[in-house]
Amino acid sequence: MASTSLVVIPHTDWPKLRDLFLNGNEIPFNAVQNCINWKVRDPEIQHLQILGLGETWRENGTFILRDRHELYFFTLEPSNESLNQAFELIDWNIPYRIVGILKQHQAVLEKVLTRLNKLPSEENLMEADLYVKLLNKKEIDMNVEPPPGFRLGSLEIRHAHNLNALSDYPTSRSEFTISRYIAWNPNVALFNEHNELMAWCLLNNLGIISLLHTDERYRRKGFAELVLTAMIVKLVDRNVTARAAVTSTNNASVNFFEKVGFRKERVLHYTHYNG
Question: Which residues form the N-acetyltransferase domain (predicted)?
């Protein structure tokens, strides 16, 4: 009998949930692994929950990851029935940023929100192309060296404010999220001889490269490719496939990622839901 309650999956069961996605479902695998990593970093972490319909997640892999204002969800169930049931139990009076969702799961979400008369406007429903880079042996062994006068390093929490200001939808909540990415996930930064930040990229909570950016004064010098390559090296060391989400209408970004060897894998959906 299907469960009718949405419950918190204990963090001790997160590895079991993660391992349901070992065969070809890397994004939910990475999402759960990221939660495990963060729980190790801060055992008292607040507002990070993975929810399931009772114990049914053990069979269907249906879960909702809730981290403050962000939601991510996934299911292995072809019918999506358990995901639909889980959505019915969410409090949709709370605003959420819903990230990295597959087309078939987004359709279930929009159906539920439409029935509740809470479907966001078109400008709050976005798509991004997910690009993946499959490395050859030479690339796996690559060495990354910055040009003279520059150095590669890591971002610090103090950089979060400026990075957030340059993001697509900057808010105080997104600044908090960026600060945690900086503190707890791999990142790469390029500094000049005056220790000024020139270029950077981060890894988000789904294991997707994000916020790749170069200071306007230093563009067209290969610095974006430099920090991206340095990030790929870090991901290789962690046995993580390099993926990046790119808005399909951003032709410059699409051309850049294709130029450096990424190929389109699928479409992901993002929803800014205001409650």
Answer: 148-275
